[in-house]
Specification:
Blueprint lengths: L2 H6 L1 E6 L6 H13 L4 E5 L14 H21 L3 E5 L4 H16 L3 E5 L11 H10 L5 E4 L2 H9 L5 E4 L21 E6 L8 H13 L4 E6 L5 H13 L6 E5 L3 H10 L2 E4 L8 H8 L4 E3 L5 H4 L7 E2 L3 H13 L4 H15 L2 H13 L1
Parallel strand pairs: 1-2, 1-3, 3-4, 4-5, 5-6, 7-8, 7-10, 8-9, 10-11, 11-12
Helix pairs in contact: 3-4, 7-12, 10-13
Amino acid sequence: MAVGERKKRVLFILKVPPPYGGGEIEHQYLYNALKYDYKFLLFARKSHNKAKQGRLSLANVLFGALMIVRVVFVCIVRRPTVVFIWLPKDLPAYLRTIFLAALLRLFGTKVIGDLHGMGFDFLQRRAQKWYLRHSINVFSTIRVLSPKIAERLRDCGFRNELVPIDNGVAAPNYLKIKTSSFEQPLRLLYLGTISESKGFLRVLELAKYLHRLHVRFSLTVVGEWRDGQFRQNARKFIKDNGLGFSVLFSGMRLADEKWKILWKSHLLLHFTDWDGQPLTIIEAMAAGVPTIATPVGAISEMIEHNVDGFLIDRVDQATHIITELLAGRLDYDAVSTSARRTFERRFTVEKYIDNIERLVQG
């Protein structure tokens, strides 16, 4: 079968922004690059956010029902031989997608799941683990973010093909001329959902330690709060520790606004408990901004410690890294340059799209 004919038989079912999560952004890249070559079915939720994700609500049920109807209708009309679809991490959406994948497999369609994350959020009970183990093999192939995540999924019982493919981002050219030196006042950055599980309290702990050491710094926080109670707790911590003049909340920033904040920053702080292959770290690499991060998900396979970023298990380790950088015992310029080179070698949007195209055509 000719390449052009193969492309016509592929259907991408994608979740695109809003909201602006990593999976949605990556799928927008796919659509923008390949929309004239393949068939696409797009889903977006303007009123959705991380706080509503995974809840058994009327809006989520209606969205799921509409999605099933649209997918079935398009597949009957288009008769794709390959379907590429996002694989949700929360249980209700997972059940919906498993149903669709099983239905498509009955018609001989190869179904490729796209897993953005280090695993599944819902694996808390034995019955849920049993269900995952006995349902996930309806996918012929799953694209994962790293070899370690592939091992994790294999341990969950997946027996078919697992393909690690890095995420990628499109970065402005002006990022290549970053020249800021590592000196006080430091410009620290937190970028992403503001929640406890994403490590924001640990970021504030670091700010407290730096304040006590009389290090001059500013911490810019870009993102949305996960819930109101956590917001109250975090703001109380800031007030109690005298950090009010050092922490700036800027809300959501997209496109060029976000890139300009990154370009001016010295370090990205990513102290999360749970993650896949964060676009925030890739974006920081593109801007030559080293990241201090916890080694969860695929992060330890993204960052080589003391080479293109820093990996930590405790907040005091982050404090030590910053003081070593300020003293010149760690070479900030070398780490910054290496981060940029790692981006160009692994994480450009062109590499990401090319690898996804190879996957769906194979």
